[in-house]
Structure formats: C-alpha cells, structure tokens
Specification:
Elements (H helix, E strand, L loop, with lengths): L5 H4 L5 H24 L9 H14 L12 H23 L6 H15 L1 H12 L1 H13 L1 H7 L5 H19 L6 H19 L6 H15 L9 H18 L6 H11 L9 E3 L2 E3 L14 H9 L2 H16 L5 H18 L13 H27 L5 H23 L22 H5 L4 H11 L5 E3 L3 H10 L6 E3 L12 E5 L9 H10 L4 E5 L2 E9 L1 H20 L1
Parallel strand pairs: 3-4, 3-5
Antiparallel strand pairs: 1-2, 5-7, 6-7
C-alpha cells in the first residue's frame, strides 16, 4: 500500500464530517493532556536545574536578566509572571479558604499549559501532511504519551521549544502550499513562520531546527516534491520577522554580560563536576571530552527501553512506510529528514540528556500514527473479508484509537506521578528502573524530602553534603533552617562540619565524587531512605568531620597517584 492512498483505503471521514467533529475531539484531547500533566504537579520537589531556574526568576523580578544566561528569556519571563500570580494568590487565599500555590507548581505550570496545547499544532501539521486520521492519532499519542508528559512537567525550556517549533513548521508548510498567484496570503504565512521560529529560538538556543526545515525543502525540490521556491521579498519578510521577534522576546542577548557568561559556559567554566552515569558506568558529558563522552547510541537506547512496546511497534511500521514513500510523498520525506537529522545532530554531540528527546517525540508520534493507520486499515480489510460486509472507516478509527489509548494509559497509571521511572519490558521493566538513565529518570526526586528530614533532625550548624546546592539552599530556607550549610565532595576542599549529612543519589555520581560516595556506602548504613514509588531515590548518611576528612584526603591521595602515574 502506498502512503498516498492510505486515507482512501481507510474509508476516512469526509472533510465535512471531519470538520464537524474535529473541534470537539481536539478539545477533549487537549483537556485530557492538561489534566494528565497537571496531576500531582508538586508531588516531587525541585530538581537542581529547577531550583536554579527559580533563582534566575527571582533575579528577573529584581531587574537582573543575566542569571542563567545559557538559556533564553521566554521561559523565565513566563515563570516570573506565574510566580508573581501565585504569591498574590497565596496572600488572598486564607481569606477565601483557597489552597496555596507552591513554587514547584507555579514555575512548572506554564510548561503544563503549553505541553497540553502542543496537541493542536501537532494535529494540524500531521493532518496537512497525511490526512485527518493520522492527524488525530498523532494528537492522541502526544496527549497521552508518557514520554511527552514526563518532560512537560518539569521547568525546562524544551516544552516551549517544541510548541513553537511545530507552529513554525506548520506555518511554513502552509506558505509553501498556497496558490503561487496569491502572494499576499503566501507572504502572511511566511511572516507567521518567521515569528514562530523567532519564538522557538527565544525558548531555547537550538537554531539547527531551522536548518532541518530548509534541508527538507531542498531535498523535496531535488525529487520534485517542492516546486515553489521562496521569493527574495519573502526571504526578507521571513528572516526579518524571525530576527525581530527573537530580539524582542530575548532582549537580554544584547547585554555584554550575557555573552561573557555564554563563552564561559561553552568552555565549561561554569561546571563543577563531570560525568553522567549510564548502565552502571560514568561517562564524560561535556564538549571537552568528545571521544570519551556518552555513546552515540544513547538516544536509540532511550527509545528501545523507554517507549511503550505498542508505540515501538507503530514507530517501526511507520518508519518502513515512510522510507517506501520518501520519493513520492512529501510527508514521508518530511518525517525522515526531521527524524534522521535529529539523531545525527543530537547523537554526535557530547552533551546528552533524556529531556532533549521531547523535540524528537512529535516525529516519533507521527511515524507511529502512520503505522497505526496502516495496521487499522489492514484490520478493517480483514474484517470485511471475514464478515463479507463493509466496515465504516470511522468505526475502525474510533475503536482502534480507543484500544491504543487504553494500552498507553496503563504505564501512566502504574508510574504516576513519577512518570520518568517507566521502563518497558525490553529494558527489564521494574528491574531496569534506575539502571539506564538514573539522573534523568529520578530527576532529583526525593531531595526535598531528604532535606526536610535533615532539617527536622540535625543539630544547629550541620552540613548537608550533596550535589544539589541550589535545591539545598531553597529548601533549608523554606523549612526554617538557614543555619544549615551546603558542600559537595566534588569541591576541591569540602567544608565539612561536626555533623555532616550526605545525600546519596545514584544519578549524582560523578568522576569527582564517586570513590568517596562508594566508600561511604560500603562503610555505613543510611539513617534514612526516601523512595519514589517503591524505588530508592535518596539515601541519607551521617558522618563526622574526622571520617569525612579521611575520605577526602584518601581521594586526594588517589587522584595525585593517578596523576603521577
């Protein structure tokens, strides 16, 4: 079956019928997506990155826009607005017997909202490329996809990036498919695409997605799928709008201090530790150690062990079909270019994080939707041959989509609210939790509870030894213990005290602290454990100053010996 004829074979609803129900279906999917993402949003405390983001937001509220300069302004501006709203709400809440809004909820909420709304541009893009059925299924997979939900619930920039990226691709596609004689409408779509790309870049500095767009249309032109080049005037409109919107939404980029910070960041001058634990081995995860960094199969492994099996099946079928239709169907070529170039660009960059896969998920879901449409078509044909009567395409789509939804909701139900802990049966199921990507999967879950324990039980002036300094600073103040100090075994000279509480997190093992942490685990028993679901997230150890100094001196001796050797 050729991709171009899928909709015909599926007896898809007529355009009029599709339009009649589309608004209702999209509304249901978007609302469902919202509630899946907002459910128990404050159940986990701040990850270190999120605590740092809150510090940057506080600086923004004071008029300082140089904090966290390695990321653009847009998310921090939205977060600042939500923080201000939450604090005004909390002041008035006791008078009206209303619940308080936590800081965790406040800075994560913009991503929850935009993550849910991403259902809409994904539908429109998939619909224009492959038809109504594929569009609805793509939107469904995003709405209930555990791999999109988990990263829409954290205060990082990737959610906004994906939302505006899909808008940009859709607007550009519309511009390319307008009647060439209607230059005014065509130019408007190019203007909208430029604005969306500007908002994308103001969300995260991933300019290469713009290059993916141009690469697709270049290749489409080579195989005769794009005969509509952009005029010189339209190029000026597109790039002019792109630059203007980016600068308006990210004016901090014009400050010299921001560029100074960015240069230091690129040179790893802001890093205090090195390493990323994957499958029991610590790898370098920075630009300066390209050959020693995380393996190129990092993201392939992620898909194999973190995608639900049903989704993997749909993705596999979709990839085969897209490859077959790459020279005849523009949508197939579009998906292959974006899916393939995503892997090329992210797999060969030393710095890798699971959350980056959020920008991969739209292509995964669209490919899987194509695979599911093909499977449903085949199922409908089989029923027709078996029962000897035609099966309405709408019924096939509805029943198939319902079954897919039920199956994909099972891992969400089992892992809520710690969705990042999901591992499919290829990865060992529950036995694989915390093995492949412990840092990203736990994402500092349990640190808040660990600090709360220390705050309740520690003598005045105690020290918390961790690699989450921003989270420690925030929660010690929140729990009324500003007297507690923070240090790390990654520091050259850890400032240990008479009472030291070590927070052990499997995902926070680095080259600098691993030997000390493993020595502590071998020699001591934890005084407390914090769990996420049934899995150990944080262990708390108590050591005195003498033991701590001995461990540090031994580590220094070891490092010097290695250096001399």
């Amino acid at each position: 079956m050729q991709p171009a004829t899928w909709q015909n074979h599926m007896h898809a609803p007529s355009p009029s019928v599709a339009r009649k129900h589309t608004f209702l279906i999209l509304t249901i999917l978007t609302v469902s997506a919202f509630f899946l993402r907002v459910h128990e949003l404050s159940s986990a405390g701040f990850a270190e990155d999120e605590a740092h983001k809150l510090m940057a937001i506080e600086s923004y509220l004071q008029g300082d826009f140089t904090e966290d300069a390695d990321h653009p302004m847009l998310m921090k501006v939205l977060g600042a607005g939500m923080i201000v709203f939450a604090r005004h709400w909390n002041q008035a809440a006791p008078d009206y017997d209303l619940p308080q809004i936590s800081d965790e909820f406040a800075i994560r909420f913009p991503n929850v909202l935009f993550g849910a709304l991403t259902t809409v541009p994904l539908y429109f893009l998939a619909r224009d490329l492959f038809g109504w059925s594929a569009g609805i299924l793509s939107a469904l997979l995003w709405a209930i996809g555990i791999n999109s939900i988990v990263y829409n619930r954290i205060a990082k920039e990737d959610t906004l990036l994906v939302f505006f990226l899909l808008q940009a691709f859709y607007f550009y596609y519309r511009a390319k498919n307008v009647n060439p004689r209607d230059t005014r409408v065509e130019t408007r779509w190019f203007c909208a695409a430029g604005a969306a790309f500007g908002m994308m870049l103001a969300s995260k500095y991933f300019l290469h997605f713009l290059a993916f767009n141009f690469l697709y249309y270049y290749l489409a032109g080579r195989v005769g799928l794009d005969r509509h080049p952009m005029s010189r005037r339209q190029q000026l409109v597109f790039f002019g709008t792109f630059g203007f919107v980016f600068l308006i939404l990210n004016a901090a980029i014009l400050q010299p201090e921001v560029w100074t910070y960015l240069l230091s960041y690129v040179r790893e001058g802001t890093m205090t530790h090195h390493g990323y634990l994957m499958m029991g081995k610590i790898y370098y995860n920075g630009i300066s150690h390209f050959l020693e960094g995380l393996p190129v199969y990092f993201y392939v492994l992620y898909l194999l062990v973190k995608l639900p099996i049903l989704l993997l099946l749909g993705l596999t079928v979709g990839l085969v079909l897209a490859w077959k239709g790459r020279k005849t169907h523009p949508g197939c070529l579009f998906l292959l270019v974006n899916f393939g170039m995503w892997f090329v660009s992210f797999s060969f960059v030393p710095g890798k994080w699971s959350r980056y896969t959020l920008s991969l998920m739209p292509w995964v879901y669209m490919l899987a939707a194509l695979g599911f449409v093909w499977i449903l078509v085949g199922a409908g044909r089989w029923v027709e041959q078996w029962k000897k009567y035609p099966v309405p395409g709408e019924w096939v789509l509805l029943s198939g989509a319902s079954l897919i939804a039920v199956i994909l909701l099972i891992p969400i139900y089992r892992t809520a609210p710690h969705y990042g802990l999901f591992v499919n049966w290829l990865g060992g199921g529950s036995k694989g939790v915390g093995y492949y990507f412990p840092h990203d999967d736990f994402y500092d879950a349990g640190v808040r509870e660990a600090i709360a324990f220390v705050a309740r039980n520690s003598p005045p002036g105690s020290t918390i030894v961790s690699d989450t300094p921003n989270a420690v600073q925030y929660y010690t103040n929140r729990f009324g213990r500003p007297d507690l100090f923070q240090t790390s075994f990654c520091d050259k000279n850890p400032a240990l005290n008479d009472h030291n509480y070590v927070l052990y997190q499997e995902g926070r093992r680095y080259f600098e602290n691993d030997r000390i942490l493993q020595a502590i685990r071998r020699s001591f028993r934890p005084i407390e454990e914090v769990r996420a679901l049934s899995y150990t997230a944080v262990q708390i150890y108590e050591i005195d100053k003498t033991v701590g100094a001995l461990l540090v001196s031994n580590e220094s001796f070891y490092n010097q010996a290695v250096k001399n050797d």
